[in-house]
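Bug report (template v2)

What were you trying to do?
Predict the complex of my protein with FE2/S2 (inorganic) cluster.

What happened?
Run completed; filing so the output is reviewed.

Input:
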Amino acid sequence: MQVLFKVIRQNSNKSPWVQTYTIDVNPSSTILDCLNRIKWEQDGSLAFRKNCRNTICGSCSMRINGRSALACKENVAQELARLAAITEQRAEQTPGNFPAVEVPQPEPQSLPLPEITVAPMGNMPVLKDLVVDMAKFWGNLQAVEPYISTAARAIPEREFLQTPVERAKLDQTGNCILCGACYSECNAVEVSSEFVGPHALAKAYRTVVDSRDDATESRLEKSNQGIAGVWGCTRCFNCNTVCPMEVAPLDQINRMKGEILERQTETASRSVRHRKVMIDLVKQGGWIDERRFGLRVVGNNFRDLRGVLSLIPLGLRMLQRGKFPETFEPSPGTQEVRSLIESVQLLESASPSSMTETVSKSPTSFKAEPYDQLQPKFGWTPYAELTNGRFAMIGFVALLIQELLTRQDFFTWLGLW
Ligand code: SF4
Ligand code: SF4
Ligand code: FES
């Protein structure tokens, strides 16, 4: 099939331009195969990175049809199908879409060629065409010291041993091939030059859960520093979506936040307070009492006078526009919301990552209880437990009535005995 490739080309510090190439390809060809053919057969000046051609080295990351991906992983057929699905979805979502009207179809030879757009990764300056300068990406990785620290430990004569369970904790984060796709799509990196990026934080978490590492506390403290660390993440989910190796950096960031929150009190910092107070208020009222939220998070419960004063202009504007809630009504279903939060907290505290040594290394009073002791008696939530208990009680009473009325036990009554 013939495909039109639109390549966003650029020379360092110059304006980009779009160059088109038409090639005859097999639908199963990877985008990297196509770029190679363009380079070898049509334009030797086209620059892009590649190495293994097998989703291992992470060199060929670029934006393909608008999102960062590995050129050696995606193929032409998949890309065209993805594009068609997006176009269809957009058409459905466009307001005022009327039922399709029969229109005369153009002759097959005049149909436009399917198009694939290729551009350099985002959040990094372009050196040439699809090649970007990844110096900051590597620098940010270096900043989290992505290697096991054994400074304070006696080095064994041969090697540090790990159990299979300890090793399994490294599987997901260990899959990172440092391709840069997550960094390229990260909203937090785009707006803040301080944020170290999803790749670095995923790697930091990998060292935090590594049983051989002895710098857990200092690593967590480093990741807890303002918007450079975990609190800079906007939770946009892009990194999880584009990562070709399913490292799920956002999940690792969330786990790291969990470890930090276990160790910190509400007064530690505004970021920590924000998370703890939000959960606390939602548990109390089913949704957030914004008046108390502001005072507790920004005003640190009247400990931070400047914070309290900073709320006054906003409070006055809200009052003026009639948006200041005078009273707080708990939401209907507060009990269910609370049950859900408690169930998630229970499951999180029982997850393999928090049952690790890293938690037992914690200086706080977090209790790592054995997993089987954390299972609720009925179902997964206190709400389900209550409901299941009621059903069991109703069933028991129904059986009792049936036996009293028939003077037979249930199974004899059914004719089974
Ligand atoms: S986390 Fe995923 S997307 Fe990010 S650098 Fe590693 S492999 Fe690439
Ligand atoms: S979820 Fe956080 S780390 Fe991931 S891309 Fe979005 S802002 Fe960046
Ligand atoms: S060339 Fe190595 S990952 Fe694509």
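What did the reviewer find?
Residues 379-417 form one domain. The chain has four domains: 2-89+110-127, 134-263, 270-332, 379-417.
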